[in-house]
Amino acid sequence: MSEKKRETNKKLNLDDLSLFSYQLSLMLKSGVSYLDAIELLKLEFKQGRIRDTVDMIYESIKSGRKLHEALEDTSVFPNYFIQMTKISEKSGMLDVEMERLSAYYDNMEKARYKVRSALIYPAFLFVLVIGIIFLIFIKVFPIFKEVLTSLGGDLPTGIQWVFQLS
């Protein structure tokens, strides 16, 4: 396994997938071959994992592999992306499919963001409620215990258990 392949073994995130497919679709729609488009993408992406991935794709295509094979060789693209690329290469609709993939991954990222945003408030409330309950057990119940025992009388078993727990 090459050094670059080891570095990029983790799958690309949704933003990178969307950006890559969008840039590629624009170039393909303008009539550029996908080898030339990948070469232009090498110039577009200055650094990082996506740049290393584009380098690997370019070298693979240059050695005679098809785009979907080059994507598969990198092992950072999801299987769905690779299969859709393979189908669109055979049908001659690579530019259209790259645009669709860009929209698909962009929508997935937006949905993921909305889900995360929707879960932050309930998680915050849960932590707050647990903190308040802990505070009641540590600070308030001992005060009640002192007051009730100073008044005298027997406490019900359930109340005694709660006081012992606190």
Question: What this model shows, in words?
Answer:
It is a single chain. The chain has 166 residues and is mostly helical. Helix content is 81%, strand content 0%. It has helices spanning 3-7, 14-29, 34-44, 49-62, 67-74, 79-91, 94-151, 157-165. Helix 3 runs antiparallel to helix 4 and helix 5 (67-74) runs antiparallel to helix 6 (79-91). The radius of gyration is 29 Å and the shape is rod-shaped. Mean pLDDT is 87; it is low at 1-8.
Average pLDDT number: 87
- Please outline the major beta sheet: none
Fraction in helix:
over 70%
Structural class: mainly alpha
Order of helices and strands: HHHHHHHH
Number of β-strand runs:
0
pLDDT < 50 stretches: 1-8
Shape: rod-shaped
Span between termini: 59 Å
Residue share in β-strands: under 5%
Rg on CA atoms, Å: 29 Å
- The number of helical segments is 8
Spell out the key features of this protein:
8 helices, 166 residues, mainly alpha, disordered N terminus, single chain, 81% helix
Summarize the structure.
With 166 residues, the protein is an all-alpha fold. The chain is built from 8 helices and no strands. α6 runs antiparallel to α7.
Write the topology of this structure.
Blueprint: H1 3-7, H2 14-29, H3 34-44, H4 49-62, H5 67-74, H6 79-91, H7 94-151, H8 157-165
Helix pairs in contact: 2-3, 2-7, 3-4, 4-5, 5-6, 6-7
